[in-house]
Design goal:
Elements: E1 5-9, H1 13-25, E2 29-33, H2 36-42, E3 50-54, H3 62-71, E4 78-83, H4 87-95, E5 100-104, H5 108-135, H6 149-161, E6 168-172, H7 178-187, E7 196-200, H8 206-214, E8 215-216, E9 228-229, H9 231-234, E10 239-243, H10 250-262, E11 264-265, E12 274-275, E13 279-284, H11 288-293, H12 299-305, E14 308-312, H13 322-332, H14 346-354, H15 360-374, H16 398-403, H17 408-426, H18 431-438, H19 442-451
Parallel strand pairs: 1-2, 1-3, 3-4, 4-5, 6-13, 6-14, 7-10, 10-13
Antiparallel strand pairs: 8-9, 11-12
Helix pairs in contact: 2-3, 10-12, 13-15, 17-18
Bound molecules: adenosine-5'-triphosphate and magnesium ion.
């Protein structure tokens, strides 16, 4: 393999000499420039593998040189040398795309470490790129990370239903990846050439949500100055993603049910029925079985949506996925585009493994993103992890209980009923599975289901 060439730019001749001698003794080829101007003059002709450049030089300083290189579209990996205490410029340099920086005065060993790390990374990146090209084939699990059995179930369902037109309901706690799954489903569906249109059902009041979904005719309500297409129309030949559908009002639910049944609707204030070819994907962090039992969600709509349901397991129930997810997020949130991913200390990983992640994968991602910045791309120790305090165990308060005016038996019954419904939904109605989940004998389960009128 040919030698890597490093260009050293510094106005101080003794530094140039020191670095050249040292790096050459370590097997690199070197060249030098006395100023920023000289770097800019010689660069188009010379194509070094790495440029080590002093930040402070007369004429052009390092930052300006980097800007110029960017303007001329000269892609040279840069490592800057900064004086101790000039961290602002160092951050600016990193933002401009410098790979790394070393602070002066430096130890030669540290310089070597940084240089080696850069070339290792470059090789790895090239390798990864090659692999990626080789692996370029449709894979429904592309960006979704996690190998736990619970996630394998998710992949299997995605694979099974992506190509069909069936309505899919994705449910699970906040931050578990529902939107990611919706995107993946769309990308692998027969409707993938069309758009994926998202509607946040919680964000809008009832009247606005209706015109958002179905559009409106001019003058149909105060403020409707012009005719407007709704999301269903925009999603024609594509998919519509109804996020947080559990928040939809009963009135809108009724209209949605009609679209799902007849694939037909009218704009608000309009009378012409419109037809659309749309794949419907809905998501909720509520348990719609419980919601519909409580009368807050239409049961018929629930069944329409729940043709296929994908349950996203909370992160605390699949902690084995944490290390892989962490690695993924360290890659995704590199300190700079060109820097290698930060690493995590063993002790920090232990802290992550013992947290209960009420915000699930999103919380993990935010934690990592923040830690990378706080550790400035270096090793992440637990001091850089800012975790939300562990959620208090659910606590039943007597005063609250008294206010509800229920008997103890009724309250316990409520809780039991809700747990039974959730277990039934999670197990897709499979009784053996439900009995296992709730640690009940099969005949005991049957008695209880009968008691709560849940036998169906
Ligand atoms: N399995 C996963 N692999 C990689 N990234 C994930 C995974 N799950 C979630 N994420 C990431 O976590 C973040 C939150 O995910 P997403 O928005 O899909 O969650 P959600 O279930 O829709 O949350 P909410 O209910 O709060 O809307 C996103 O940045 C997403 O890319
Ligand atoms: Mg979401």
């Amino acid at each position: 393999m040919s030698k890597k060439q490093i260009l050293i730019a510094d106005d101080d001749p003794s530094i140039r000499l020191l670095l050249r001698n040292f790096l050459e003794s370590e097997g690199y080829e070197t060249a030098e420039a006395k100023s920023g101007g000289e770097v800019l003059r010689i660069l188009p002709a010379l194509t070094p593998d790495l440029l080590i450049m002093d930040l402070r030089m007369p004429e052009w300083d390092g930052i300006e040189v980097m800007k110029k290189l960017g303007e001329q579209n000269l892609k040279v990996p840069v490592m800057l040398m900064t004086a101790y205490g000039t961290s602002n410029s160092a951050i600016q340099a990193i933002q401009l795309g410098a790979f790394d920086y070393i602070t002066k005065p430096f130890e030669l060993d540290d310089v070597l470490l940084t240089v080696r790390r850069f070339f290792d990374y470059q090789e790895l990146a090239a390798e990864v790129k090659k692999l990626r090209v080789q692996l370029e084939r449709p894979d429904p699990t592309d960006k979704i990370i996690g190998k736990s059995p619970a996630m394998q179930e998710v992949y299997k369902t995605i694979g099974r239903v992506a190509r069909s037109d069936s309505t899919v309901l994705i449910w699970g706690e906040t931050g578990t990846g529902k939107e990611l799954v919706a995107q993946t489903l769309h990308q692998h569906s027969a409707h993938r050439a069309g758009p994926l249109i998202k509607v946040g059902c919680a964000a809008l009041p009832e009247t606005l949500l209706e015109s958002e979904l179905f559009g409106h005719e001019k003058g149909s309500f105060t403020g409707a100055m012009v005719q407007r297409k709704g999301r269903f129309e925009m999603a024609h030949k594509g998919s519509i993603f109804l996020d947080e559908i559990g928040e939809m009002s009963l009135g809108t639910q009724k209209k949605l049910l009609r679209v799902l049944q007849e694939r037909e609707f009218e704009r608000v204030g309009g009378s012409v029925p419109l037809q659309v070819d749309v794949r419907v994907i809905a998501a909720t962090n509520k348990d719609l079985a419980t919601e519909s039992a409580a009368g807050r969600f239409r049961e018929d709509l629930y069944y329409r949506l729940n043709v296929i349901s994908i349950f996203m397991p909370p992160l605390r129930e699949r902690k084995d996925d944490i290390p892989t997810l962490v690695e993924h997020f360290l890659h995704k949130h590199r300190f700079s585009v060109s820097s290698p991913p930060s690493r995590l200390s063993e002790e920090a990983l232990k802290v992550l493994m013992s947290h209960d992640w009420p915000g699930n994968v999103r919380e993990l991602e935010n934690t990592i993103e923040r830690a990378v910045v706080m550790a400035q791309g270096g090793i992440i120790t637990s001091q850089y992890l800012y975790l939300t305090p562990l959620k208090q165990k659910r606590f039943i308060d007597l005063d609250q209980k008294l206010q509800s005016n229920q008997s103890l038996r009724e309250t316990m019954g409520d809780i039991e009923r809700q747990l039974l419904q959730q277990a039934l939904a999670r197990a897709d109605g499979n009784r053996t599975e439900v009995a296992k989940l709730l640690k009940l004998e099969p005949n005991e389960l049957e008695t209880r289901l009968k008691e709560y009128d849940l036998e169906r």
